[in-house]
C-alpha cells in the first residue's frame, strides 16, 4: 500500500476521539499537582498549612505557562492547582483539547520539576464555558474552594499542633460549619479574617505594561520602551468584585 493511503487509514484511529472547543466558548484550563499531599508533607516538608516557598513554586509555574505560547490573559493559583483564562481569539492547535491539555501539563510539570529539583507532575483539563457570567462564576468557584481549604487547613494544623492525632483532628472538624471553625481558631488566638489574603483567596497573575528607560546610541538619547511583564497579585479582591477583576482581562489587547 502507498504510504499516503496507509497514513490516512491509520490516522483515522488516532483522530477518532479528538475534540475541539467551539469558537464561541471561552476556554479555561485547570491543572492540578499529582500526589502533592505526599510531595508537600513527606518529600519536601513544606511548612503547614501554608509555605511561601511552595506558593512561589506555583506562581513561577503559572508564569512559565503564561509564556508558553498560548494567549493566556489571566492565571490563578491556590493550593496545588492552577487555572488559566484564554483570550477569546485563541486558536492555537485549532483549539484541539488533546493538544492543549498535554502541552500545558507537560510545560507545568517540567517547569515545577526544574525549580524544585525533582520530578513532579500535573494533570490538566479544559473547561469550556458558555459566557462571561460563567467565566466569572468559574473563578469565584475556585476562590471559594481556596477559602474553604484555608479555613480547614488552619483548624486541622492548629489541632495537630496541640497534640491531637490526625484522626482526632479530622473527627473534631467533621461536618462543622464556618462559624464553628472560626470560633475554634479565635479561641487559639487566630483571627482567620486577618490571615494573609493570598492564603485565603489565592494569587492572580497577569501581564502589566511596564515603561523602561533605555538608551538609543545612534540618536544618543534616552528612550522609553514599553514591555509586558508578568505580575503576581497577592491581594486579589474577593467575591463579586473578583468576578469583575477577572473579566477585565478578557478585554486585553493581545
Ligand atoms: N505543606 C503545605 N502543603 C500544601 C501547601 N499548599 C498545598 N499543599 C498541599 O497540597 C495538597 C493538594 O491537595 P490535592 O490536590 O487534593 O491532593 P493530591 O495529593 O495532590 O492528590 P491528586 O491531586 O488527586 O493527585 C494538599 O495536601 C495540601 O495540603 C502549602 O503551602 N504547604
Ligand atoms: Mg493535587
Task: Provide a quick synopsis of the model.
This protein has helices at 3-14, 36-43, 52-66, 97-116, 132-161, 166-173, 178-187, 197-201, 240-248, and strands at residues 26-33, 72-78, 81-86, 122-129, 203-216, 221-233.
List the helices and strands and how they pair.
Blueprint: H1 3-14, E1 26-33, H2 36-43, H3 52-66, E2 72-78, E3 81-86, H4 97-116, E4 122-129, H5 132-161, H6 166-173, H7 178-187, H8 197-201, E5 203-216, E6 221-233, H9 240-248
Antiparallel strand pairs: 1-3, 1-4, 2-3, 2-5, 5-6
Helix pairs in contact: 3-4, 5-6, 5-7, 5-9
The chain binds guanosine-5'-triphosphate and magnesium ion.
Please supply descriptive tags for the structure shown above.
254 residues; alpha+beta; Alpha-Beta Plaits; 9 helices; 6 strands; binds guanosine-5'-triphosphate
Structure commentary:
This protein has 254 residues and is α+β, with helices and mostly antiparallel strands. It has one domain: Alpha-Beta Plaits (2-Layer Sandwich), CATH 3.30.70.3000. It has nine helices and six strands; from the N terminus they run H-E-H-H-E-E-H-E-H-H-H-H-E-E-H. It is globular and about 70 Å long. The relative contact order is 0.15. Bound molecules: guanosine-5'-triphosphate and magnesium ion.
Percentage of residues assigned to helices: 40-55%
DSSP E strands, number: 6
Beta-strand percentage range: 15-25%
- CATH homologous superfamily (4th level) name: tRNA(His) guanylyltransferase (Thg1)
Secondary-structure element order, as H and E? HEHHEEHEHHHHEEH
The description of the largest β-sheet is: 6 strands, antiparallel
Amino acid at each position: 500500500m502507498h504510504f499516503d493511503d496507509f497514513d490516512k487509514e491509520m490516522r483515522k484511529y488516532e483522530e477518532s476521539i479528538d475534540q475541539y472547543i467551539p469558537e464561541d466558548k471561552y476556554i479555561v484550563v485547570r491543572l492540578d499537582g499529582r500526589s502533592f499531599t505526599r510531595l508537600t508533607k513527606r518529600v519536601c516538608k513544606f511548612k503547614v498549612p501554608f509555605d511561601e516557598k511552595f506558593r512561589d513554586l506555583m506562581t513561577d509555574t503559572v508564569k512559565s505557562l503564561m509564556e508558553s505560547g498560548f494567549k493566556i490573559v489571566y492565571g490563578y493559583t491556590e493550593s496545588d492547582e492552577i487555572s488559566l483564562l484564554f483570550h477569546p481569539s485563541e486558536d492555537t492547535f485549532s483549539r484541539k483539547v488533546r493538544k492543549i491539555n498535554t502541552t500545558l501539563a507537560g510545560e507545568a510539570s517540567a517547569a515545577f520539576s526544574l525549580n524544585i529539583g525533582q520530578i513532579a507532575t500535573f494533570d490538566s483539563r479544559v473547561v469550556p464555558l458558555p459566557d462571561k457570567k460563567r467565566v466569572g462564576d468559574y473563578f469565584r468557584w475556585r476562590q471559594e474552594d481556596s477559602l474553604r481549604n484555608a479555613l480547614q487547613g488552619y483548624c486541622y494544623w492548629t489541632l495537630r499542633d496541640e497534640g491531637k492525632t490526625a484522626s482526632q483532628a479530622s473527627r473534631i472538624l467533621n461536618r462543622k460549619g464556618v462559624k464553628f471553625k472560626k470560633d475554634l481558631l479565635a479561641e487559639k488566638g487566630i483571627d482567620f479574617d486577618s490571615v494573609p489574603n493570598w492564603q485565603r483567596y489565592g494569587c492572580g497573575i497577569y501581564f502589566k505594561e511596564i515603561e523602561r528607560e533605555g538608551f538609543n546610541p545612534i540618536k544618543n538619547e534616552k528612550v522609553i520602551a514599553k514591555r509586558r511583564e508578568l505580575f503576581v497579585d497577592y491581594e486579589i479582591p474577593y467575591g463579586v468584585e473578583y468576578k469583575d477583576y477577572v473579566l477585565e482581562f478578557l478585554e486585553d489587547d493581545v
